[in-house]
UniProtKB/TrEMBL annotation:
Regions of compositional bias (Basic and acidic residues) in chain numbering: 447-461
Occurrences of domain HNH nuclease (ranges): 340-392
Family designation: Belongs to the Rv1128c/1148c/1588c/1702c/1945/3466 family.
Name listed for the protein in its UniProt record: HNH nuclease domain-containing protein
A GO term, aspect molecular function: endonuclease activity
Lineage top rank: taxon: Bacteria
Region described as Disordered: 412-461
Length: 461
């Protein structure tokens, strides 16, 4: 019954501690959190000492376990990685016995001292052990104390993840040949696989060498950044995974529009959708007017509604097919927004004219107010620029757009605003900010002291 009594006593102490926590000031709470962490680290060091002794005695073999890590994992009900970390650290921070039974100091005495003080965690110690093990032989023989002191010093200041980067830099400094070989091995191990899931979504799995990975991160991070909080306090509703996916989509848009992409059969890389023209016109999303789906170049289906959105700023190639789907006649491609018209739209609307747009990165779309499929003309008075995110919003939520005095006005659906109050469109916020700041620039004066009149600005694209 003793364990029950101990548990009850511990429970009483916990309740009393909890009541005392409520009465703590903020500063006292912070101090207690730090003290608890330090105490847990000190206790962990005590456990490492016990693990090292159990390892020396070979307790795992006596109990039928194939290794110390396996025995500890089962004993403590912890993950294999955690068990391996504790055993590895214990073997390096505890005194050792020589072949003659003599006691030898720990291999990493400075790490052991920091652990005993509660200044660093076991994970810090794991990084230090791994970093020293990867040093070249001459450094392990002659500079291990210096390297350990450096790493322990940093471990007291930075989290384990950052400590790993420092350990790697030290290794790159002391073993440049080995580091170069590692990079060569990573390049050989590079791989990227993609396929289509049963639900039609594309699945991508990749392992990139550090140089290619750095390029990818440099490109995806700005494209996947969260949208700034709106004036109404609304935050970006997308998850980190969704933002990364949107950033990747924007990256593909930029690559598709680049003249540097290799051409196949004289054509730049492009997305192809095959859909009946009447279905494309009917694809308005109402239950009684659903159009037949189209087909992507991957062979997967796509709804007429999304095909309609994509067609806003795409080349439409009329093609007459027979009953078996074979081409009989080919029309002429019509580009909905030629280069000169896009330049004029960008000058008027910026990257996106949707109210309050914060200019998400990516290639904007030229959207027809009255759809080209429904006979809307491809001209400045019937078009407006939308970023990819707001282009999808306009189509999926069914915003209405009207042109008033040459400017787009957005009318939200009743699900967004029950009164459907019109919202004037304009340039994305960064462009508006630049225009406002331009007023702060002092006007130039001629030698006579008179203010010069502003000259008309020319749009450069």
């Amino acid at each position: 019954m003793a364990p029950l009594t101990d548990t009850r006593d511990a429970s009483v102490e916990m309740m009393s501690s909890r009541s005392s926590v409520v009465s703590c000031s903020d500063a006292e709470l912070i101090a207690r959190i730090q003290r608890c962490e330090q105490a847990m680290r000190v206790v962990m060091m005590e456990q490492l000492q016990v693990i090292a002794e159990a390892d020396r005695r070979g307790l795992h073999a006596e109990r039928g376990a194939r290794s110390m890590q396996v025995w500890l994992r089962e004993l403590l009900n912890i993950d294999q990685r955690d068990a391996k970390t504790r055993v590895t650290v214990a073997r390096n921070v505890e005194d050792r016995a020589s072949l003659y039974g003599e006691t030898m100091p720990a291999e990493l005495p400075q790490t052991a001292a920091a652990l005993s003080q509660g200044a660093i965690s076991v994970e810090h110690a794991r990084v230090i052990v791994a970093g020293i093990r990867r040093l070249p032989e001459y450094a392990r023989c002659h500079r291990v104390g210096e390297v350990e002191a450096t790493l322990v010093g940093y471990a007291r200041q930075v989290p384990p993840r950052e400590l790993e980067k420092i350990a790697e830099r030290i290794r790159y400094l002391l073993d440049q040949d080995g580091a170069y070989q590692d990079e060569a091995d990573q390049h050989e191990a590079r791989e990227l696989h993609y396929g289509t899931g049963r639900d039609g979504m594309t699945v991508i799995k990749a392992r990139l060498d550090r140089e290619t990975g750095a390029k990818f991160v440099a490109l995806i991070e700005p494209l996947a950044a969260p949208c700034p909080q709106t004036a109404g306090g609304e935050k970006d509703p997308r998850s980190a995974g969704q933002r990364n996916a949107d950033g990747f989509a924007a990256l593909l848009d930029l690559a598709t529009d680049s003249d540097g992409m290799p051409r196949a059969g004289g054509q730049r890389p492009h997305l192809t959708i095959t859909i009946d023209f009447e279905d494309l016109k009917r694809g308005l999303g109402f239950p009684d007017e659903q159009g037949m789906p189209g087909t992507l170049n991957t062979g997967r289906a796509i709804t007429a509604e999304n095909a309609r959105r994509i067609a806003c700023d795409s080349e439409v190639l009329p093609m007459v097919l027979d009953g078996a789907g074979l081409p009989l006649d080919l029309g002429r491609a019509r580009r909905t927004a030629p280069a000169h018209l896009r330049a004029a739209l960008l000058q008027r609307d910026g990257v996106c004219s949707f109210p309050g747009c914060d200019r998400p990165p990516g290639t904007p779309d030229a959207h027809h107010v009255v759809s080209w499929i429904d006979g809307g003309p491809t001209e400045l008075a019937n078009m407006t620029m939308l970023c990819g995110s707001h282009h999808r919003t306009v189509h999926s939520q069914r915003w209405e757009i009207q042109m008033r005095e040459g400017r787009p006005v957005f009318i939200p659906p009743s699900t967004v605003d029950i009164d459907r109050r019109p919202r004037p469109g304009g340039k994305a916020l960064p462009a508006q900010h630049r225009e406002h700041l331009r007023d702060l620039i002092p006007s130039q004066r001629d030698p006579a002291g008179e203010t010069r009149r502003s000259r008309p600005e020319a749009a450069v694209s």
